[in-house]
Amino acid sequence: MPNDDAHSDPPMPWETESLGRVQFLLSDAKWDPDRQEVCIPSEEAGGHYPTFNSLEEFRQYLVDQYTSVWYGAAPSEGGGAVFDSMDEVDIVNEELSEYENQIESLGWEL
Fold first, then answer.
1. How far is CA 107 from the centre of its chain?
2. Biggest CA pair distance of the chain
3. Average pLDDT over residues 51-79
4. β-bridge partners, 80
5. Do the Cβ atoms of 102 and 31 come closer than 8 Å?
6. Residues 106 and 37 sit within 8 Å (Cβ to Cβ)
7. Residue 83: which of 6, 7, 12 has the closest Cα?
8. Which of 29, 34, 49, 52 has the fewest CB atoms within 10 Å around its CB?
9. Burial of 86 (0-12, 13-18, 19+ CB in 10 A)
10. Percent of the chain scoring above 70 in pLDDT
């Protein structure tokens, strides 16, 4: 029986853009174990940048960024996206797992 993964469709552009946004934010994040926080300097607005003191807040920010890019890039019809994002939390969690050491250094549990 052939491997289904070998025949899966390539990701759609909006999927790639959404994932790329989350990956960029995580790669740009500055982890501060002393303050038990993470911030994202590239997102500076008005002299302030997003800073998070809990994994839940940080995860939600990443999910919001993912869905924002998704709905901004996915084709739309009649004012709504043709394709809904359904796996954003799982995708963000998978990406966060790549940063387990940094997350644990803040005293957070993944």
1. 20
2. 57
3. 89
4. 77
5. yes
6. yes
7. 12
8. 34
9. exposed
10. 87
Residue 4 has pLDDT above 60, yes or no: no
- Distance between alpha carbon 55 and the CA centroid of its chain, in Å? 13
**How far, in Å, CA of 59 to CA of 34, rounded?**
20
**What distance in Å separates the CA atoms of residue 27 and residue 22, rounded to the nearest whole number?**
9
Residue 36 has which token pair? 């038990």
How far apart are alpha carbons 109 and 49 in whole angstroms? Answer: 23
How confident is the model at residue 13, as a pLDDT?
87
Is the separation of the CB atoms in 66 and 92 below 8 Å? Answer: yes
Distance CA 12, CA 60 (A): 23
* One-letter identity of residue 30: K
pLDDT value of position 82: 65
Q: Which range has the worst mean pLDDT, 20-29, 59-68, 82-91?
A: 82-91
Residue type at 67 in one-letter notation: T
Tokens of 70: 């998704």
For the record, the structure tokens of 87 come out as 């796996």
